[in-house]
Amino acid sequence: SQQGEEDPQALSIQEGENATMNCSYKTSINNLQWYRQNSGRGLVHLILIRSNEREKHSGRLRVTLDTSKKSSSLLITASRAADTASYFCATDALSYNQGGKLIFGQGTELSVKP
Amino acid sequence: DGGITQSPKYLFRKEGQNVTLSCEQNLNHDAMYWYRQDPGQGLRLIYYSQIVNDFQKGDIAEGYSVSREKKESFPLTVTSAQKNPTAFYLCASSTGFQETQYFGPGTRLLVL
What we know:
Chain A is mainly β. Chain A contains no helices and eleven strands.
């Protein structure tokens, strides 16, 4: 089963609105990362948050991590049409059978309409 | 200009043919990875390498092979044993095993 699962699978908003995506995972982690993928392109790293951190900011991005609930959220404020992409969370499961490798979720497809 | 490159952008495979996807990085990263992505899906790990001359199977290694003879290069061969090879293939590298991964632009493999 998946280590990381994003919710919702798809999100459609208007330009200027905020977008929130959630990620849940099953086992203890060292860190959690968020990546972005434009259609047909490679992934681009957005933010890495370590297990002892609760919140991290980068420009219009805000990531929170709640290790007690095994969940993370990515907030994009004042969204732009250029934010349209798929967003993935990736976890390094400490005890998952992957031996600590990054496990990617299935992603949230964000559409920002002008 | 540092980065990670993949070639070709599109690759067509005939029935029973082996094809090789190229991945090169000049970031001086020790670790390299190959992922497969199917439409609307996340990434699944095929193979990874933490150091030159060493590599490990990921979740879906069957029908694939790799080599890591140089730090900069991690080619992936899709063999005829891979019965459903049509997918988007992504290569990535990182300084360490659980650190940020840097991705190439991907290769889309199609079967004729």
